[in-house]
Amino acid sequence: MAGMHKSEIANPVLNWIDSRLPVITMMQKEYGVFPTPKNFNYFWNFGALAMVNLVIMILTGIFLAMNYQPNTELAFDSVQRIMRDVNYGWLIRYVHQNGASMFFIVTYIHIFRGLYYGSYKTPRELLWMLGVVIFLLMMATAFLGYVLPWGQMSYWGATVITNLFSAFPWIGPKIVTLLWGGFSVDNPTLNRFFSLHYLLPFVIVGVVFLHVAALHIVGSNNPLGIDVKGPQDTLPFHPYYTVKDSVGMCVYLMVFAAFVFFAPNYLGDPVNFIPANPLQTPAHIVPEWYFLPFYAILRSVPDKLLGVCLMFGSILLLFILPWLDTSPVRSARFRPIYRILIWVLVACVVVLGFCGARPPEGIWVILSRICTLYYFAHFLVILPILGKLERPLPLPESISQSVMGGGGGPMPSGAHAKPMEKA
Amino acid sequence: MRALRSMIAGVLMGGLAIATPAVGPALAAGDAPTPPAQNWSFDRIFGTFDLAAAQRGFQVYSEVCSACHSMRLLSYRDLAGIGLTNDQIKAIAAAVTVPQGLDDQGAPKEGPGTPASRFKRPFPNDVAARAGNNGALPPDLSLLSNAYLNGPDYINGVLTGYSDPPAGFTLMDGMNYNKYFIGHQIAMPKPLSDGQVTYADGTTASVEQMARDVVTFMTWAANPEMVERKQMGVRVILFLLLMTCVTYAVKRKIWADVH
Predict the structure, then answer these.
(1) Which of B232, B240, B251 comes nearest A254 by C-beta?
(2) Fewest CB atoms within 10 Å of the CB: A14, A101, A374, B213?
């Protein structure tokens, strides 16, 4: 198999490179002419947006790290020095701080897109599982990063979350000591959290590469959830989807900018403006908003170990989702019952978010229990049974036929409601 | 249409989820009533700091608050941000004595401050601060305005919220009753009384006036970049709005031949 790649690039310099390392041919194939279903809606922007967000986080993070001091005596003030004395330090930091929230907003919508349109189903199971790995890495990175400013909520958040591991019998306390690098959250903890917070984003880049590679093997799902039947169903990625992603990116950057410039601390906890004080516990320790649903699941049961298992389980069960959902139909558009239940799930997660922000007492405990129960029932009980019972609507014959029929717009009912084969 | 409706519902739900943390800490205030919301010069998208108020606030801080409260993150040079001239800043800095490293015998040396000096702290350390204040630590004021939900309203409420305790309320020894302070018992005695400072610009120094002024100063101190940030934000958003329109037009044109 040795020998040079036969490059078709006209430019002699680029041809010389491409013959020896066909990166240009690869980009051409994967991002130029790459056949992409022609019926994407704007939900299909969010993967690209997440990628852009990751790059923004890494770039701003590198410049923050040049000015940050991972030492308990200096960390808080070094962050304030970035805010006050480093040229445009406030901009870099507020972009990084709000970028974390934007990353989760974008990723949660991306995950919802996958759930709604059944993107996790065969042949995209591994693609989905790599996505769950990215999500877990993101959560770890966000948690580690939140500790670095060494405010009150940084410190006490780190204390609560690392202590969760102590729930595991036998090895639990040893894990906690290892995480802390000592016998309490202290300087060694901050040092290793900083090191890991710098490392994990690059691990995410690696898994994102695999995620995209897997995507380009099996191809994208689409809002109809049916397979691409031929060239008439697809468009080249460029210019059609580069321009459509650009529209989404402008809107996304506008939302991002609105937070950064006009409400940079809206999503943060005011208590983190007070330097960490191991002798004074804040009245209510709450994680950042993007962890609240999982925090509510953790607190919904009185047993610590069970709570920890439920919290981790709520994410880990996403790994087996492709096998829990027994319906052969991908898109919720053709699943009359699933299309309702997916919104019940979303409502439950939102309610769990509210519960996580409240002290665990009274109505909030009851609500978080009900919603936790539904969350697990949705995946573990309803999805396996629903696939057998639900009568899906007839699927359109092909993407192009549905698009020609004006899919989505006002159209005579039954325009594409002929009985079809299942996906 | 159904997809559109789903999407709108999704956005609304997302919005609610985002609003969650902002609601959360409000309840953390416990039984203290919410302090009345004030109109601040720095509110809203185009709000800037009322520099005259911030300068009066600096006077209140210097003459009253700084007896107990530090502002350790600020340097005198930062005062240019509330419109003081270099000469004014040099004069203010020179009036305090700050440590200046070691003399040639190796003994600690002191001398007049410069614009680069940090604000002089009233106590050398937290232990001394507690010892001088009946065991209570006066918090640093550099970021205090950001450290509460609706911080400016809250601090304004506390500064103006001193009163006699209601019947049946038992105050602990050395504590003071405050309507808006979380838990109602505050170690700080009523800090402001009418006419306590004499404003150079002739403004009547009522408790309300001084509270508003010092809150404006503290909010500036916690967010010195705010005006620049908002001005840049307006330009960035306008640019992105234009780019969205242009990109969308290009998208329409490119997609015109599909279907």
Answers:
(1) B240
(2) A14
Q: Report whether pLDDT(B21) > 70.
A: no
| Crossing angle of helices A237-262 and A46-65, rounded to 10° | 50
Rounded to two decimals, the ipTM of the complex is: 0.89
What is the per-residue pLDDT across A252-278, written as a single tens digit (0 to 9) for each?
A: 999 999 999 999 999 999 999 999 999
Task: Find the mean pLDDT for residues B3-31.
Answer: 43
Q: Are the beta carbons of A247 and B244 separated by less than 8 Å? A: yes
Task: Return d(Cα A211, Cα A204) in angstroms, integer.
Answer: 10
Q: Distance (Å, rounded) from C-alpha A278 to C-alpha A106?
A: 34
CATH superfamily membership of A286-397: plastocyanin oxidoreductase (1.10.287.980)
What pLDDT digit, counting tens, does each position of A167-215 carry? 999 999 999 999 999 999 999 999 999 999 999 999 999 999 999 999 9
Domain A17-281, CATH: 1.20.810.10
HEC assignment per residue over A41-95: CHHHHHHHHHHHHHHHHHHHHHHHHCCCCCCCCCHHHHHHHHHHCCCCHHHHHHH
pLDDT recorded at residue B13: 43
Q: How far is CA B133 from CA A123, A280, B129, B185, in A?
A: 69, 18, 6, 15
Contacts of A362 (CB under 8 A, 6+ apart): none
**Secondary element (H or E) of residue B94:** helix B86-94
Three-class secondary structure assignment of B213-240:
HHHHHHHHHHCCCHHHHHHHHHHHHHHH
B90's enclosing H/E stretch is helix B86-94
**For testing contact with chain A, the best of B247, B252, B255, B258 (most A CBs within 10 A):** B247
Q: Which residues of chain A form CATH 1.20.810.10?
A: 17-281
Contacts of A203 (CB under 8 A, 6+ apart): A137
Share of chain B above pLDDT 90, in %: 80
Written as one letter, the residue type at B25 is P
In tens, the pLDDT along B101-133 reads 899 999 999 999 999 999 999 999 999 999 999
Q: Is B24 on the interface with A (CB under 8 A)?
A: yes
Asked if B153 is an interface residue toward chain A (Cβ–Cβ < 8 A), one would say: no
Contact with chain A for residue B13, Cβ under 8 A: yes
What is the C-alpha separation between B26 and A362, in angstroms, rounded? 17
Q: What is the dihedral of CA A11, A17, A23, A29, to 10 degrees?
A: 30
Q: Give the per-residue pLDDT at A2.
A: 78
Coil/strand/helix, residue B179: coil
What are the DSSP E strand ranges found in chain B?
97-102, 108-112, 176-177, 185-186
pLDDT band, residue B192 (cuts 50/70/90): very high
**Is A220 assigned a catalytic role?**
yes
Active site residue A186: no
Closest in B24, B144, B259 to A286, CB measured: B24
